[in-house]
Design brief:
This protein is α/β, with parallel strands linked by helices. It has 7 helices and 13 strands. The strands form 2 sheets. Strands 1-2-3-4-5-6-7 form a 7-stranded mixed β-sheet, with no helix packed on it. A hairpin with a 4-residue loop joins β3 and β4. The chain is globular. The structure holds zinc ion (ZN) (2 copies). The site of one zinc ion (ZN) has 5 residues, from loops.
């Protein structure tokens, strides 16, 4: 197996002049999560942090000295790998212990350690999935429903969207309808059967998402959704207990 150059570990796509999506193309598709970098006037927002197999901090184009607000949508392994590389770490209070300790029971890291073909290219010579572990990243700011993050020219409101995990959050800019939904909703099979998931609570979140007025929703996995697509996925879950396949 070849070793990927560190500067090509992340793939990236410019979604808007101030918004970039990054992902890890050599990671098993089940663990290939979206990372978003939103450049604000006074501060940048980075949402989610991949597997931590290569430095995300080094891969990001951040103006030196500009504050970076690092927000984890939830504590699963595919979203928190490079969280510890950032100084100002935000996440929901319900998963505070998970971020601080990064234990398998909450991060589900063992699923990655045990999966066949965890990567298609090595992040470093002699890298082995069996040795994989996450670095603890205690939150420096606890988020709850109604909190907001100020980037100077944009304000993102925190929506608590539990069900997939207890502390799943979304971020919504109510001014322009930009919505980051984490793993609460995305294109693809939704996960409600892992430890920490709660289907009853997830249905309440889906009721909310089925009504939520957004312009565009960027999910934790897969391509972005317009409002109609997102609401249809939410209604599909409420009807069938399933996402888009
Ligand atoms: Zn997840
Ligand atoms: Zn995920």
């Amino acid at each position: 197996m070849t070793v990927a150059l560190s500067d090509t570990w992340f793939a990236r796509e410019r979604l808007a002049p101030d918004l970039t999506r990054l992902w890890e193309p050599f990671v098993h598709s089940f663990f290939q999560a979206n990372i978003f970098h939103l450049r604000g006037r006074d501060a940048d927002l980075v949402l989610d942090f991949g597997m931590g197999l290569a430095s995300l901090r080094d891969a990001l184009d951040v103006t030196p000295g500009k504050p970076v607000l690092a927000v984890a949508s939830h504590g699963h392994v595919d979203h928190v790998g490079s969280f510890h590389e950032f100084e100002r770490r935000f996440g929901h209070a319900a998963e505070q212990a998970a971020f601080a300790e990064m234990r398998d029971g909450e991060t589900l890291a063992a699923l990655f350690r045990d999966i066949d073909e965890a990567v298609t290219q090595l992040p470093a010579p002699a890298w082995r999935a069996a040795d994989f572990s996450l670095t603890p990243a205690p939150l420096t700011t606890l988020l709850t429903e109604g909190d907001s993050l100020d980037l100077g020219n944009a304000r993102l409101h925190v929506l608590h969207l539990p069900g997939h995990s207890p502390g799943s959050i979304g971020l919504l800019d109510e001014h322009d309808g930009l919505f980051f939904s984490g793993d609460a909703i995305y294109r693809g099979g939704l996960v409600d059967d892992v430890p920490g998931a709660d289907r009853t609570v997830y249905r309440q979140t889906m009721e909310r998402l089925a009504q939520l007025d957004v312009a565009v929703a960027h999910g934790g996995h897969g391509a972005s959704m317009d409002r109609a697509t997102m609401q249809a996925i939410a209604r599909g879950y409420l009807r069938d207990g399933d996402g888009e396949r």
